[in-house]
UniProtKB/TrEMBL annotation, chain A:
Organism superkingdom: Bacteria
GO function term, MF aspect, one: ATP binding
Similarity field: Belongs to the ABC transporter superfamily. Macrolide exporter (TC 3.A.1.122) family.
Name assigned to this protein: ABC transporter domain-containing protein
PROSITE patterns noted in UniProt: ABC_TRANSPORTER_1 (PS00211), ABC_TRANSPORTER_2 (PS50893)
Organism whose genome encodes this protein: Mucilaginibacter polytrichastri
Membrane-traversing stretches: none
């Protein structure tokens, strides 16, 4: 479903190019659960952001759902990711001004979904994550794990085919982290959602079906679990 | 989507309470002041436009080569002369303003003279029969015509004053003025003339009356067909589509033919819509209002509005750091840029609406005080005139939406990647933008402060300048309205009686007094061996008695004051005059010692018996004019220098003596110093408006600064915490935050000073006598700005400095 061919990303520093990603090629099939690992500064987040179309590569070819992303205009690209991709962040990035309910609802608003339909979808999601009781609370009133749960719920509300998660458990304790990972596994198995996550934890990486190691902007190794 | 925007906006505004309140306060104050000033401007602009035919109405003026402004007091004979001879005239109406002023005697109810009541009225004009047809002053009762001799129309308030609720129509009132005692029949009652009318009269007498020489009392200059003396205003209603240039040329030609004396003058017609406010600064017609005032007020209003908008931009972009994350996340969740812009614009709209509501409520609240102080009946409904509210709303909304739009586009341009990484600090529009805005705000504030100080200094200067005479502790009693043979003796007897009173220290009679005016202006006055052109020079003439100079402490430089014999004979027989130094100079005398006894030619020959030192007869707006004093038993004003202790008792005694000497004449008095000071009302008002505006500008700018300081303190909270842990004290921290802002204020002072100097220097040039702009004014204005800025910033920085560092660091 997703294919990167000879992707490079560099920054111009002085006269030199510093490569953050150097000639990376990667294919991910629908239904995979990929964990990306690697030392700090190796380019994991950059890679994930490029996959998620938040960032553009300096060079290379990028195909997503058979579309040549590197040739698409901004508008088409954002339409593409709006439809297929959901993001989960290490720092949750919930909107402080919105309640749990409204945070989850927001992506639907941007997809121009009718209010009655939105209500049903959000209610479903709250139910599924067992946070109905928390729906009127603001992010500041939740624990980190609860916030991340809301973050995932929000990512899932538009029924994306792919979830991109950058250190989703980075700010959580190990028990909370485990819960999130269980959730990902369930999503992957039962809902056939493709998941690509960046993680520093060996243990969390094991939840994936494939583990990729990034080193100095290159894919160092890739193994199936 | 909009509902969602509104919900989120309200929540955001509530969450960022400090910023919202500051924003709303600044905007509301700006809008309120803008509305108040626009009311005034609309009022001034709308003057005289309520007449249905105002577009066709003109007032005639004559222009001569040497006069800067037109003269609109014309001989009444011009009206009939032009009426039939120049095509294009629909109506002509003459209004001789104030010419009929004097005493109105209202008969008592029982018919005997004992019940008579008399009133002194000074807004009594003569008007032609078509007055109410041409002008839109509604007539409440009676006929609209003043066609018959000895008929009159009175205003509703005069009717109330004279007759209470009784019917005035058909009543006969005796009017005693310069034309003797004439009975007039009331034929109409009209609604009080609105403040927006430059034509003001409490009583209108039919012009027709003056056609009869018997009702002119020997004042033949007032003959309605006369072509010599100019004393009346003539209004023309021209047919639509008349070529004004051609019309003026034809009218001038007709007048030149009919009145060869007027051959120097050209006739021109001033549109009624420009009667109050000139359409340009170089307008040659006389106007009642002041374009300069309107333009300065309007500029101040716009400046304040601008400061408020900049505040908005400043405060909103300062919050970008916090809002950026939200924008970034929304983008990742699929929001388009336009949707984010919509969100911010909704916020702006809500803030603007709240501000407008608060502004309107505040305007309503302060309206009475404002009106009181401007002496105008203003209200928001004035803005209805000339669609001023359209302009006003456009200005307010465009400004707010430009400001809001700018903020929205800046905030929506944020790259979501940056926020998600949460690494790079986000500054929107750059620090330098916010700095320039602060500099601009304070520059404007400092200019307004300097202007205010200069205005008040000039006012003070004019009020405290040595006038060359003394108006303190002088009470001025208005004399009887006319002087018949016996009243002349009464006058002398009255004066004698007053002189006996222990508290009357000095007493003079004159036909006009300082601060009020002269008696008339004259030219054709020269030395015996005159130079060419000397006869064109103008002199201000004042009719006085022998005590006038002493009573006002005017110094006699050479010669002596008039003798009682000279008064007795009057100036037209005795041919003696006293002149001031300026007159001596204008006449061409080099050495004052030689002047006494010299002859001056003014048709006949007059002998100079005295020279007085120059004094300011009128305000310091004008240069001291060459003055000639003429001796007479004057009776218009009695000036008493008196012991002002127990004033009330003295005044009541003066009143009873006066009423005894001049039966039927109402007693009125003023204080000479107060009347003189009234000439500075315009400056007083301007000063007050500037003071209020400067205050508001500084306040709004300070609000903005407060917001920025809050932001800076928040942004630097970690830095402050670390510094404190490293041993920094409160002062170090306060300096860290404040220094930056004070620098901006300093820059503002540097920019503002020369600009303010230039503007105020120009303004001062309009005064014949003016103060200079001292360096300390700039220092003072600067200090005010710095102190206010420092206090504002300190509130926040001290708070930040004394906060527990552990807390802020743990939060990171
Ligand atoms: N705007 C930029 N300009 C220059 N270099 C950048 C920029 N953004 C990121 N980099 C560099 O790119 C490299 C990769 O960054 P990236 O965030 O992808 O690392 P990461 O593998 O996610 O690290 P971590 O595990 O710490 O999150 C880093 O060395 C970083 O300094
Ligand atoms: Mg990373």
């Amino acid at each position: 479903m997703l294919s990167l061919k000879n992707i490079s990303k560099y920054y111009q520093a002085g006269g030199n190019k510093t490569y953050v990603l150097n000639n990376v090629s990667l294919d991910v099939d629908a239904g995979e659960f990929v964990s990306i690992m690697g030392p700090s500064g190796s380019g994991k987040s950059t890679l994930l952001n490029i996959i998620g179309m938040l960032d553009e590569p300096s060079e290379g070819y990028h195909y997503f759902m058979k579309e040549a992303v590197h040739q698409l205009k901004e508008k088409a690209r954002s339409a593409l990711y709006k439809e297929y991709i959901g993001f989960v962040f290490q720092a949750y990035h919930l909107i402080d001004e919105l309640t749990v309910y409204e945070n989850i609802e927001t992506p639907l608003i941007y997809q121009n979904i009718k209010s009655s339909e939105r209500k049903a979808l959000v209610a479903d999601m709250l139910d599924r994550f067992q946070i109905v009781g928390k729906k009127d609370l603001f992010p500041a009133q939740l624990s980190g794990g609860q916030q991340q749960l809301v973050g995932i719920a929000r990512a899932l509300i538009t029924k994306p085919r792919v979830i991109l998660a950058d250190e989703p458990t980075g700010n959580l304790n190990s028990k909370q982290g485990e819960e999130i990972m269980e959730l990902f596994r369930k999503l992957n198995k039962e809902d056939k959602v493709t998941i690509i996550q960046v993680t520093h934890s060996e243990k969390n990486a094991e939840y994936g079906t494939r583990i990729i190691n990034v080193l100095d902007g290159k894919i160092d190794s890739s193994r199936n679990v | 989507m909009l509902g969602n925007h509104i919900k989120i906006s309200l929540r955001t505004l509530r969450r960022n309470r400090t910023f919202s309140v500051i924003n709303v306060l600044g905007l509301a104050l700006g809008i309120a002041i803008f509305l108040l000033i626009t009311e005034y401007v609309a009022f001034e602009w709308g003057a005289n436009r309520f007449h249905k035919n105002f577009d066709q109405l003109y007032r005639a003026s004559t222009f001569t080569a040497d006069a800067d402004k037109g003269d609109y007091y014309l001989p009444p004979g011009y009206a009939p002369t032009l009426k039939n001879r120049v095509p294009g005239i629909n109506e002509v109406v003459r209004v001789a303003e104030g010419v009929g002023s004097g005493l109105v005697i209202v008969p008592g109810t029982n018919g005997s003279t004992a019940g008579n009541k008399s009133f002194r009225e000074n807004k009594v004009s003569f008007a032609d029969d078509n007055f109410f047809r041409v002008f839109s002053f509604p007539v409440i009762k009676g006929s609209t015509s003043l066609a018959k001799a000895q008929t009159m129309a009175i205003s509703a308030s005069i009717a109330q004053k004279y007759f209470g609720n009784g019917n005035p129509i058909g009543q006969v009132l005796n009017i005693k003025n310069q034309f003797g005692l004439t009975p007039y029949t009331v034929t109409a009652v009209y609604e009080g003339m609105p403040q927006q009318s430059d034509i003001q009269a409490d009583i209108l007498l039919s012009y027709k009356t003056l056609e009869n020489a018997a009702f002119r009392n020997g004042n033949n200059w007032a003959d309605p067909n006369g072509l010599g003396s100019g004393y009346t205003n003539i209004y023309f209603m021209l047919n639509k589509g008349v070529d004004l240039k051609l019309f003026e040329a034809q009218a001038t030609q007709v007048i030149h033919k009919a009145a060869p004396d007027a051959a120097k003058a050209t006739l021109a017609f001033q549109p009624l819509r420009n009667l109050h406010i000139a359409p340009s600064f170089s307008y040659h017609f006389q106007t009642y209002g002041s374009l300069v005032l309107v333009v300065s007020f309007l500029s101040v209003a716009l400046l304040i509005m601008m400061i408020a908008w900049l505040n908005y931009i400043n405060l909103s972009t300062a919050q970008a750091l916090y809002r950026a994350k939200e924008s970034g996340v929304r983008k990742v969740l699929g929001a388009s840029r336009m949707q984010i812009v919509g969100q911010y614009l909704t916020e702006t709209a809500i803030l603007t609406l709240i501000s407008i509501v608060i502004a309107i409520v505040s305007v309503k609240l302060v309206q009475p005080f404002y009106n009181n102080f401007l002496g105008k009946e203003l209200s928001l409904t004035v803005l209805n005139q000339g669609r001023f509210w359209v302009g006003g709303i456009t200005v307010v909304f465009t400004g707010c939406f430009l400001a809001g739009g700018y903020v929205a586009f800046m905030l929506s341009s944020i790259d979501p990647l940056k926020t998600i990484r949460g690494k790079a600090a986000i500054t929107i529009g750059g620090i330098s933008l916010r700095r320039s805005l602060v500099v601009f705000q304070f520059t404007t504030s400092v200019i307004l402060i300097i202007s205010t100080i200069t205005l008040y200094r000039q006012l003070k200067y004019m009020q405290t300048q040595d006038l060359g005479m003394n108006v303190q502790q002088r009470v001025v009693i208005s004399g009887p309205s006319t002087l018949s043979g016996s009243q002349r003796d009464n006058t002398l007897a009255f004066e004698n009686q007053l002189r006996q009173l222990p508290y009357v220290q000095k007493l003079a009679a004159s036909n006009n007094v300082p601060g009020e005016g002269y008696n008339f202006s004259a030219d054709g006055i020269t030395r015996l061996n005159a130079n060419v052109g000397d006869d064109k020079k103008s002199y201000a003439m004042l009719i006085v008695d022998d005590k006038y100079f002493d009573t006002y402490d005017i110094k006699i430089k050479a010669g002596a004051t008039f003798t009682p014999q000279m008064l007795e004979q009057g100036w037209s027989k005795t041919h003696k005059i006293i002149i001031n130094e300026s007159a001596a100079a204008q006449l061409g005398f080099k050495n004052t010692e030689n002047i006494i006894g010299q002859k001056i030619k003014w048709d006949a020959e007059f002998e100079v018996v005295g020279v007085v030192k120059d004094y300011h007869h009128l305000s310091l707006h004008e240069f001291i004019r060459p003055m000639i004093f003429l001796p007479a038993v004057a009776h218009n004003y009695f000036t008493i220098k008196m012991d002002t202790r127990n004033l009330a008792g003295h005044v009541s005694q003066l009143k009873s003596i006066y009423e005894h000497s001049f039966p039927g004449e109402p007693f009125t008095y003023t204080f000479a110093d107060e009347s003189f000071d009234k000439q500075y009302n315009a400056e007083q008002k301007l000063g007050n408006v500037f003071m209020a505006s400067a205050g508001a500008a500084v306040f709004i700018a300070a609000l903005g600064l407060f917001g920025l300081a809050t932001f800076a303190a928040r942004q630097k909270i970690k830095e402050i915490g670390i510094r404190k842990v490293l041993g920094a004290n409160v002062l170090n921290i306060v300096t860290l935050i404040s220094a930056d802002f004070l620098k901006l204020v300093a820059i503002a002072i540097v920019i503002a000073s020369p600009v303010a100097w230039y503007i105020m220097n120009k303004w001062l040039q309009d005064f014949a006598y003016h103060t200079s702009i001292q360096w300390w004014v700039f220092a003072l204005a600067g200090s005010i700005a710095v102190v206010i800025a420092f206090v504002t910033v300190s509130i926040q920085s001290v708070k930040a400095a004394i906060a527990n560092p552990v807390k802020s660091l743990r939060n990171e």
